[in-house]
Design a protein that fits this description.
- This protein is of the alpha+beta class and about 120 residues long.
- It is about 20% helix and about 30% strand.
- The chain contains 2 helices and 5 strands.
- The protein has a 5-stranded antiparallel beta sheet, with helices on one face.
- The two termini are about 15 Å apart.
Amino acid sequence: MSRSQGDDETADGGEGHNADIVITVVRSGGITGVPRTWTVVPPAEDESQWVVLIQRCPWDGDTSTQPGADRFLWRIRVQLPHDQHEQVIADAHLSGPWRELVEAVRAADSPPRSTT
């Protein structure tokens, strides 16, 4: 989801919350190969906590995208008011700040949805 500055649309169907931060995690691969998607649009009062999690991740760092047989790949997308980030991480490299961010998103948007 992308927004341009001055966009009047809201992420919650028009109930007054602008989607200043949108975090989406997609897990693909594994034995079944069925992707799972989790998304969180934090309420304004929680945004600073999410920004801390986002900023701790090494977005420009080198991550391996070779998952190996039946391993997961994690695609993490973050839309901020004036910036966006995206990273693909092999399951073996999902640790530290990356794992914290993924686990927080998964916990905030449970149960996961299948994507097709």
